[in-house]
Design a protein that fits this description.
Elements: H1 7-18, E1 38-42, E2 55-56, E3 60-61, H2 63-74, H3 79-91, E4 96-100, H4 120-129, E5 133-137, H5 139-149, E6 158-163, E7 166-173, H6 182-201, E8 210-211, E9 214-215
Helix pairs in contact: 1-4, 3-6
Protein backbone atom coordinates (compact mmCIF):
# COMPACT_ATOMS: atom_id res chain seq x y z
CA UNK A 1 0.00 0.00 0.00
CA UNK A 2 1.41 3.39 -1.00
CA UNK A 3 2.20 5.62 1.97
CA UNK A 4 0.42 8.96 1.99
CA UNK A 5 2.84 11.86 2.28
CA UNK A 6 2.11 14.35 5.07
CA UNK A 7 3.65 17.63 6.09
CA UNK A 8 4.97 15.86 9.20
CA UNK A 9 6.78 13.33 6.96
CA UNK A 10 8.31 16.18 4.98
CA UNK A 11 9.33 18.03 8.13
CA UNK A 12 11.08 15.00 9.59
CA UNK A 13 12.84 14.17 6.32
CA UNK A 14 14.16 17.64 5.49
CA UNK A 15 15.44 18.02 9.05
CA UNK A 16 17.18 14.67 8.81
CA UNK A 17 18.68 15.36 5.37
CA UNK A 18 19.89 18.89 6.19
CA UNK A 19 20.79 18.26 9.82
CA UNK A 20 18.81 21.43 10.48
CA UNK A 21 21.74 23.45 9.14
CA UNK A 22 21.07 27.15 9.71
CA UNK A 23 22.02 28.02 6.12
CA UNK A 24 19.92 25.33 4.47
CA UNK A 25 16.76 26.31 2.60
CA UNK A 26 15.02 23.21 1.29
CA UNK A 27 12.30 25.18 -0.52
CA UNK A 28 9.98 28.17 -0.37
CA UNK A 29 6.22 28.27 -0.81
CA UNK A 30 3.22 29.52 1.12
CA UNK A 31 1.96 26.81 3.46
CA UNK A 32 2.53 23.14 2.73
CA UNK A 33 4.59 22.06 -0.29
CA UNK A 34 2.15 19.18 -0.81
CA UNK A 35 0.05 19.82 -3.92
CA UNK A 36 2.68 21.93 -5.68
CA UNK A 37 2.07 21.46 -9.41
CA UNK A 38 5.07 23.54 -10.45
CA UNK A 39 8.73 23.39 -9.40
CA UNK A 40 11.04 26.35 -9.97
CA UNK A 41 14.57 24.92 -9.81
CA UNK A 42 17.83 26.84 -9.41
CA UNK A 43 21.27 25.64 -8.39
CA UNK A 44 21.40 26.86 -4.75
CA UNK A 45 19.89 29.59 -2.53
CA UNK A 46 21.67 32.90 -3.10
CA UNK A 47 20.40 34.81 -0.07
CA UNK A 48 21.13 34.16 3.60
CA UNK A 49 17.57 34.96 4.74
CA UNK A 50 16.95 31.90 6.95
CA UNK A 51 14.36 29.23 6.28
CA UNK A 52 13.78 27.54 9.64
CA UNK A 53 12.19 30.46 11.56
CA UNK A 54 9.49 30.55 8.89
CA UNK A 55 8.90 26.80 8.66
CA UNK A 56 6.36 25.90 11.32
CA UNK A 57 4.08 22.87 11.55
CA UNK A 58 1.18 22.45 10.88
CA UNK A 59 0.97 25.44 8.51
CA UNK A 60 4.29 24.83 6.81
CA UNK A 61 6.22 27.67 5.20
CA UNK A 62 5.29 31.24 6.14
CA UNK A 63 6.65 32.77 2.96
CA UNK A 64 5.13 36.21 3.51
CA UNK A 65 7.08 36.47 6.77
CA UNK A 66 10.21 35.25 4.97
CA UNK A 67 9.75 37.98 2.34
CA UNK A 68 9.42 40.62 5.08
CA UNK A 69 12.72 39.42 6.59
CA UNK A 70 14.35 39.42 3.14
CA UNK A 71 13.30 43.04 2.57
CA UNK A 72 14.56 44.09 6.00
CA UNK A 73 17.95 42.70 5.03
CA UNK A 74 18.12 43.94 1.44
CA UNK A 75 15.59 46.84 1.35
CA UNK A 76 14.38 45.71 -2.11
CA UNK A 77 14.21 42.64 -4.31
CA UNK A 78 17.43 41.65 -6.04
CA UNK A 79 17.08 40.86 -9.79
CA UNK A 80 16.54 37.11 -9.37
CA UNK A 81 14.07 37.48 -6.48
CA UNK A 82 12.10 40.14 -8.36
CA UNK A 83 11.65 37.79 -11.31
CA UNK A 84 10.78 34.82 -9.11
CA UNK A 85 7.96 36.78 -7.51
CA UNK A 86 6.65 37.94 -10.92
CA UNK A 87 6.72 34.32 -12.11
CA UNK A 88 4.86 33.04 -9.04
CA UNK A 89 2.19 35.74 -9.39
CA UNK A 90 1.67 34.86 -13.05
CA UNK A 91 1.32 31.15 -12.25
CA UNK A 92 -1.43 31.72 -9.64
CA UNK A 93 -3.75 30.09 -8.71
CA UNK A 94 -1.49 27.11 -9.48
CA UNK A 95 0.69 26.21 -6.50
CA UNK A 96 4.43 26.60 -7.12
CA UNK A 97 7.43 25.41 -5.10
CA UNK A 98 10.75 27.25 -5.27
CA UNK A 99 13.63 24.85 -4.71
CA UNK A 100 17.24 24.21 -5.70
CA UNK A 101 19.54 21.36 -6.68
CA UNK A 102 21.66 22.13 -3.59
CA UNK A 103 19.74 23.33 -0.54
CA UNK A 104 22.48 25.24 1.27
CA UNK A 105 23.09 28.97 0.90
CA UNK A 106 26.12 30.51 -0.74
CA UNK A 107 26.37 33.89 -2.51
CA UNK A 108 27.26 32.03 -5.72
CA UNK A 109 27.74 28.47 -6.90
CA UNK A 110 31.53 28.73 -7.02
CA UNK A 111 31.76 29.49 -3.29
CA UNK A 112 29.58 26.52 -2.30
CA UNK A 113 31.91 24.09 -0.54
CA UNK A 114 32.00 20.42 -1.49
CA UNK A 115 30.20 19.14 1.62
CA UNK A 116 27.23 21.40 0.81
CA UNK A 117 26.83 20.00 -2.71
CA UNK A 118 24.24 17.53 -1.48
CA UNK A 119 21.27 16.85 -3.76
CA UNK A 120 19.28 14.57 -1.47
CA UNK A 121 16.72 17.19 -0.41
CA UNK A 122 15.86 18.07 -4.00
CA UNK A 123 15.72 14.43 -5.08
CA UNK A 124 13.43 13.65 -2.14
CA UNK A 125 11.04 16.49 -3.05
CA UNK A 126 10.98 15.46 -6.70
CA UNK A 127 10.22 11.87 -5.72
CA UNK A 128 7.39 12.53 -3.25
CA UNK A 129 5.73 15.58 -4.84
CA UNK A 130 6.19 14.92 -8.60
CA UNK A 131 5.17 18.25 -10.17
CA UNK A 132 3.27 18.69 -13.42
CA UNK A 133 5.67 21.33 -14.76
CA UNK A 134 9.26 22.08 -13.80
CA UNK A 135 11.15 25.22 -14.83
CA UNK A 136 14.92 24.89 -14.47
CA UNK A 137 16.94 28.09 -14.84
CA UNK A 138 20.70 28.27 -15.13
CA UNK A 139 23.25 26.04 -16.87
CA UNK A 140 24.38 24.14 -13.77
CA UNK A 141 20.86 23.22 -12.73
CA UNK A 142 20.01 22.08 -16.26
CA UNK A 143 23.16 19.96 -16.46
CA UNK A 144 22.39 18.28 -13.15
CA UNK A 145 18.79 17.55 -14.10
CA UNK A 146 19.88 16.01 -17.38
CA UNK A 147 21.86 13.52 -15.31
CA UNK A 148 18.99 12.87 -12.89
CA UNK A 149 16.36 12.48 -15.63
CA UNK A 150 18.76 10.75 -18.05
CA UNK A 151 17.64 12.88 -20.98
CA UNK A 152 18.70 15.96 -22.89
CA UNK A 153 16.92 19.19 -21.89
CA UNK A 154 17.41 21.68 -24.75
CA UNK A 155 17.46 25.32 -23.68
CA UNK A 156 14.17 27.18 -24.01
CA UNK A 157 12.16 24.09 -24.83
CA UNK A 158 9.45 22.04 -23.14
CA UNK A 159 10.48 18.38 -22.85
CA UNK A 160 8.17 15.74 -21.39
CA UNK A 161 9.86 13.25 -19.04
CA UNK A 162 8.57 10.49 -16.77
CA UNK A 163 9.22 10.44 -13.01
CA UNK A 164 7.69 7.80 -10.75
CA UNK A 165 5.27 6.82 -13.49
CA UNK A 166 4.03 10.38 -14.02
CA UNK A 167 4.78 12.79 -16.84
CA UNK A 168 6.48 16.11 -16.08
CA UNK A 169 6.76 18.92 -18.63
CA UNK A 170 10.25 20.39 -18.13
CA UNK A 171 11.13 23.84 -19.48
CA UNK A 172 14.67 25.23 -19.31
CA UNK A 173 16.07 28.73 -19.59
CA UNK A 174 18.95 31.02 -18.77
CA UNK A 175 19.33 31.99 -15.12
CA UNK A 176 16.59 34.44 -14.12
CA UNK A 177 19.22 37.05 -13.26
CA UNK A 178 20.38 37.20 -16.88
CA UNK A 179 18.47 38.46 -19.91
CA UNK A 180 14.90 38.05 -18.64
CA UNK A 181 12.60 41.05 -18.96
CA UNK A 182 9.69 41.25 -16.56
CA UNK A 183 7.35 40.81 -19.54
CA UNK A 184 9.05 37.58 -20.62
CA UNK A 185 8.94 36.19 -17.08
CA UNK A 186 5.23 37.01 -16.84
CA UNK A 187 4.60 35.32 -20.21
CA UNK A 188 6.40 32.19 -19.06
CA UNK A 189 4.35 32.11 -15.87
CA UNK A 190 1.08 32.40 -17.77
CA UNK A 191 2.15 29.65 -20.17
CA UNK A 192 3.05 27.37 -17.25
CA UNK A 193 -0.31 28.14 -15.62
CA UNK A 194 -2.20 27.26 -18.80
CA UNK A 195 -0.15 24.11 -19.32
CA UNK A 196 -1.05 22.92 -15.82
CA UNK A 197 -4.73 23.55 -16.48
CA UNK A 198 -4.57 21.62 -19.76
CA UNK A 199 -2.74 18.76 -18.09
CA UNK A 200 -5.55 18.45 -15.56
CA UNK A 201 -7.82 17.76 -18.52
CA UNK A 202 -5.52 15.67 -20.69
CA UNK A 203 -1.80 15.00 -21.27
CA UNK A 204 0.12 17.59 -23.28
CA UNK A 205 2.89 16.62 -25.70
CA UNK A 206 6.26 18.38 -25.69
CA UNK A 207 6.21 21.77 -27.40
CA UNK A 208 9.14 23.55 -29.06
CA UNK A 209 9.08 27.30 -28.37
CA UNK A 210 12.62 28.60 -28.34
CA UNK A 211 13.93 32.12 -28.78
CA UNK A 212 17.62 32.82 -28.12
CA UNK A 213 17.72 30.33 -25.27
CA UNK A 214 14.63 31.70 -23.52
CA UNK A 215 11.03 30.55 -24.05
CA UNK A 216 8.96 32.70 -26.41
CA UNK A 217 5.18 32.59 -26.39
CA UNK A 218 3.08 33.41 -29.40
CA UNK A 219 -0.37 33.45 -27.80
CA UNK A 220 -1.97 34.58 -24.57
CA UNK A 221 -3.35 31.92 -22.23
CA UNK A 222 -7.07 31.52 -22.05
CA UNK A 223 -8.96 32.76 -19.01
CA UNK A 224 -9.64 30.08 -16.43
CA UNK A 225 -12.09 29.77 -13.61
CA UNK A 226 -10.32 30.76 -10.39
Amino acid sequence: MKKTITIHNIDATIRQLTGGHLESRPFLCEGSPIGSEVFLVGINPGTDTPFWPYWRIPHGCHKNEWIEDYLRRHSRFKPTRARIEILFKAILPIKCLETNVFSQYSPNERSLHEAARDTRVFEYLLTVLVPTVMFIHGASGIEHMEQVLKTSLPLGQFTTVTQNGREIDVITGHHLSRGWSYERVDALGREIQERCIRRRRQPVSATFITSNGNPHFNSKPKNIDK
